[in-house]
C-alpha cells in the first residue's frame, strides 16, 4: 500500500525490514538450523519406530541411554570444531580418547581425591597432546592431517601400553557424577557446554579462531595473534578429547585402549553434519553437538527399522551425504535471497 506522496507506508516498510532481517538471519544460520531440524526429525523417527516395535514411547531408560552415549561424541565433536574453524583438522581425537579412557580405568581409586586428581591430570595430558599437535602445525608449518595422523598412532600406542587388554574400572561415584545411568543428568554438562561455547565465541580467542579461519592473512594484518590463537585451538581440542575419554570411561565403567578409535571419523562427521565448514571460519559448536546426537540416535533408528547391521555403515554414510547436500542447497537459496 502506497501513500499519496508515492512513498511506502510505515507498516509496509517495517514488514519488508522484518522479512529482510529474517532472511538474513536464516542465511547466516542455515547450517545450524538445519542441524537442529535434522535432530528433531531423527528423534521423532526414532520415537515412531520405537513405538511400532515396543508399543510404547521411549521412557527414562531410553532417553538416558541416548544422552549418555552421545556425550563423548558431542565433546569430541566440539573439540574437533575448535580446530576445524581455524582451517585445520585433528585426526588424533580417537587416540587421545583411548589414552584418557585407559588412564582413568587403571588409576582412579574409589575415593574423591583420587578421582579429582586423575581427572585433572588426564585433562592436562589432553592439553599437552593438543599443544604437541599445535606446535608441529603452527611452528613447524606441517600439514595438520599428517601431524595428527602421526600423533593418533602415538596416543594409541601409549594407550595400549597403559592398558594392554580391556579391563580396569572407574569408581561408581564417578559414573554417577558424569553419566548417571538412572536419569538423563548428562543434560546438565551438555547445557554447561553450550553455555561455555556461547561465552567462548565472544572472547578474544574465540573471535580470533573465526577470523583466522575466514582469512589468516587478514587476521594477521588486523593484529590477531595467529600463532597463539591456533595453539589455543589445538590445546582446547586436546582437552575436550580427553574429557570425552573421561565420559566414555564413566559410561562404560571400565577401560579399553581401542574404544576411542571410532571417534576419529565420527567427530569429523558430527562436525560436518552440524554445518561447520571444513574450510574454516564458519560454523557453531552447537551444530556439532546436534550432529553428535543425530549420529547416535541414527544407530537406534536403523536398529528399530530392522536394517541389517552389515549395511548400517552404508546407510549412515548415505544419510550424511544427503544431509550435507541439502544443507548446501538450502544455504545457497537463502544467500541468493539476501
Q: Class by helix and strand content?
A: mainly alpha
Beta strands, count: 0
The helix content, as a percent range, equals: over 70%
Mean pLDDT: 88
Termini separation: 23 Å
- Put simply, the count of helices is 13
Tell me, what's the shape?
A: globular
Main sheet: strands, sense, barrel: none
What gyration radius follows from the Cα positions, in whole Å? 22 Å
| Total individual domains | 1
Strand content: under 5%
Question: Helices and strands, in N-to-C order?
Answer: HHHHHHHHHHHHH
Q: Which segments are poorly predicted (pLDDT under 50) over 5 or more consecutive residues?
A: none
Molecular structure report:
Helix content is 75%, strand content 0%. With 338 residues, it is mainly α. It has one domain.
Question: Keywords for this structure?
Answer:
mainly alpha, single chain, 338 residues
Furnish the topology, listing elements before pairings.
Blueprint: H1 10-54, H2 60-84, H3 93-107, H4 112-139, H5 144-162, H6 172-179, H7 187-200, H8 204-214, H9 216-221, H10 226-252, H11 263-273, H12 285-304, H13 312-337
Sum this structure up briefly.
The protein has 13 helices and no strands. The chain has 338 residues and is mainly α. The protein is globular and about 70 Å long.
